Amino acid sequence: RRWGLMRIDRSAIAASKMFRGPLRGPLVVATIFTGYAAIVSFVAAYEDYQHQSKLSAEDEVRMKVENDRHDLMASAMLGGNTSDPCEYVRRVPRPEHSVISEAPGRYLITPSEFKNGLKENTIPTLPNGIPKVIHQTWWSRKVSKKSLRLASSWLRCMPGWTHVLWDDNDARNLFKEESPDLLTMFDTYPYPVQRSDIFRYLVLFKYGGLYADMDYECISDISGPDGIGSTNATAFVSGAPNILVDGKVQNTLMSSAPGHLFWEHTLATSAHNCGRMGEIELVVRLLVGLGFCSAAFQMRPFLGWTGISVLSTTGPRMLSEAYDTYHDMGNNDIETTRVSILPVALFNGQADQGAKDGGVEDLTYPCAPKSIHRNSAGWTKNSPFPYTGEHRIFGVRFPHRLVALLLLEVMALVACAFWCLGGQEAFDERTKVK
């Protein structure tokens, strides 16, 4: 027993000498970063558990409603909201019952119904080759009343257009059937909005037509010569109200003829871009620099909700980059491959007046006469830091990453207090007494 106590004392003395020696600094740093990794790993594991539970619940709901088709007529007949802050919305009249009751866009149909319509050649096209079909996507066919109200605005404005709703399973099946080489990239994106983003590029490349976010509201027909019906181009993307956030364009409202070269270029840009990650984790940055996107994404369970930029990997910033490089290649010089930017003042009013980042830049276009992006920013609820992964402390929201960093700072202060304010001398005195 005495021999055991002597060994413990010797170990304590050896440890004390080691901490007082040249290894003291590295050991303190190692202790701090080990604690940081443990904190973030715990948070990541907890969030992953919650995420997987949510996915399971969503799968059950998705299967129950996978064949539902929504009748948009009742909502469309209401006309514009007379209390809306945008004057253009208040002026929208109620449509004639006879016009929309038998219209192709009365129902939000399934992709299977849409594909059958293609086989029967029942979908007409605009003079520039754009098919009269509207694509929208949601996690399932269980859609809120508010979203259905906005979706019905397209029936009110463009009743002759077929209206298709794709859920998450439909989106994955599209990649599996039409672009299996990109399926791995699709599956390894950690955030649902990234898969939603890349889906819209592929669906327009494959089928053409018009893509609109679920929070987009149509005010008047946008398929005329001053909109996506222009014969000066065969692809159209909405301009971005805030170029500091999104770049030149947004991916919220887009249209093209099928097989357009721009979408092929956009998919290639997304595949090779891998994201401009503003991350502090050097391992992730190294993997990105080497092009190992899947490996970088899979590091998330250990590193926590990494700040992979949705905007730069699949969203508007990536699309803006694709547009610039596409233009530099000379493709906009030819009408058949040209991409035209839809003016923000006409097609992308921000009726929420800055919900995305609260900046004054978004206040420039409070509404628009053609279409309005209500900008619900729903994707930020399942997106990377700093938008999600939050705790409420005294009523204030703190991202998990910030909580981890705060705890790290506390640990550093405690270590500093111990080593710099007399903790070492106290430890030495106790050792001598023993």
Give an overview in words.
There is one protein chain. The protein is globular. The protein is of the alpha/beta class. Helix content is 50%, strand content 12%. The protein is built from 20 helices and 13 strands. A hairpin with a 2-residue loop joins strand 12 (390-393) and strand 13. The longest helix has 41 residues, at 24-64. The strands form three sheets. It has an eight-stranded mixed sheet with strand order 1-2-4-3-5-8-7-9, with helices on both faces. It has a three-stranded mixed sheet with strand order 6-11-10. A two-stranded antiparallel sheet has the order 12-13. Helix 1 runs antiparallel to helix 20 and helix 12 (261-273) crosses helix 17. It has helices at 2-20, 24-64, 73-76, 87-90, 97-100, 111-119, 145-157, 168-178, 183-188, 192-207, 243-246, 261-273, 282-289, 293-298, 300-303, 310-313, 316-328, 344-347, 400-420, 423-433, and strands spanning 70-71, 107-109, 133-137, 162-166, 209-212, 216-218, 235-239, 249-256, 339-342, 349-350, 371-373, 390-393, 396-399. The two termini are 16 Å apart.
Q: Termini, distance in Å?
A: 16 Å
The main sheet comes to: 8 strands, mixed
Percent range for helical residues? 40-55%
The low-confidence runs, each spanning 5 or more residues with pLDDT under 50, are 1-8, 275-280, 301-308, 351-364, 382-391
In which order are the strands of the major sheet placed? 1-2-4-3-5-8-7-9
Strand segment count? 13
Rg from C-alpha positions? 27 Å
Structural class: alpha/beta
Q: State which percent range the strand residues make up.
A: 5-15%
- The helix count comes to 20
Mean pLDDT: 77
Principal-axes geometry comes out as globular
